[in-house]
Amino acid sequence: MYELGICLSTGRLLWMRGPYPAGTSDITVARTGGLVEELHRRGQKAIGDRGYNGEQKQISTPNAHDNKGVSLFKRQALMRQENFNGMIKRFNVTSHCFRHSEERFELAFEAVCVICQNKVENETPLYDVIQQVKDQFETNSVTS
């Protein structure tokens, strides 16, 4: 298991930590892998799914207190992250038993991430989260 983070404004891969044993919870990975500490040090926040509940000062997760716009923004950001994760999954680097050392697995996974980032930058960009939210609001205001 790896933890990946995509920049909200640029779509670039900013954070990659792992590997972690299968079954390790997202929040445990964020705490032990340094994400929570790094976000605190930088005075920044991340958006994560509900698996990241418990570090609300550094990681904003979907919740009942979000207004419609914030909720839509978080959904779009999480969907874009899943699109990037899906690109990586197409390489099957994490779905099969890797028969070499952990060090070689890390190199293979990093290589796949670099290939996917290159594809995002030069062939198939990830969608703009902010533009998606604006488009959704414009569509809803026209049809309402």
Question: Tags for this entry?
Answer:
single chain, two-stranded antiparallel ribbon, 4 strands, mainly alpha, two-stranded parallel sheet
Helix and strand run: EEHHEEHHH
Give the % helix. 40-55%
Number of structural units classed as domains: 1
Weakly predicted, low-confidence segments:
none
Quickly count the helices.
Answer: 5
Compute the average pLDDT: 89
What do you see in this structure?
The protein has 144 residues and is mainly alpha-helical. The chain has one domain. 51% of the residues lie in helices and 9% in strands. The chain has five helices and four strands; from the N terminus they run ββααββααα. The protein has a two-stranded antiparallel ribbon. It has a two-stranded parallel sheet with strand order 3-4. A hairpin with a 6-residue loop joins strand 1 and strand 2. Helix 3 crosses helix 5. The longest helix has 22 residues. The chain starts with a strand and ends with a helix.
